[in-house]
Amino acid sequence: MNPSLTDTPTLSRRGLLHLSLGASAFLATVGLGATLTGCSTSQPASGLAALRDSDLPFLRAVIAVMLDGAVTAEKLDAATEITLQSLDRGLAHLSPSMLKLTRQLFDVLTLGITRGPLTGIWGAWENASAEDIQVFLARWENSSLSLLRQGHGSLLQMVMMAWYSCPQSWAHCGYPGPPVV
Asked: Which of 20, 49, 132, 146 would give a disulfide with 128, using CB separation of 3.0 to 4.6 Å?
C-alpha cells in the first residue's frame, strides 16, 4: 500500500536548514565558478562605474517590469535608463564586500545554468515577456528558501531606491522635491 501525501512527513526544521545550507553553497559555488572561469568579468560596462555588460540585459528587463505603473509606457525606456544610471551610482558607493555580493546575485540571475532553474527564464532576458518576469519575481518573493526571498528583497530595494532617488519619479508620487535651502 502506498502512503498518501498526508501520511508522509513534512519538511522538518533540520531538513529546511539542510536545504537552505545546500542552496547557499550551490549559489556561492556558481558565483565563484562564474568569476573564476571568466563568465563574469569585474570590469564595469563602458560609461558605467559598477554595472557590467552582463548585468545590463537582465536589469533592463526587470526594471521595466518593476516600474510598470509608476511611469507611462512612452517614458518607460527613458525611466529604465535613468534608473540604471542611478543604480550604477549607488553600487559604485558600496563597500567592496557588498558590491561583490551584489555581483554574485547578478551572476546567478544572468548565467544560463542557474537562470533557468532559479527564475524560470530559460532564454535570454531580452526575450522574456513581462509576464514571465512577474512570475519570476513572485516566485522569489514567495519562495520557501530564505535565500531567494532575500535576493528578491535586495533586487526590489535596489531598483526602487534607484528610481525614487531620481527627480523624474517625484511628480508621479506627488513629491515636490527637497526644500531649497
From this structure: 132
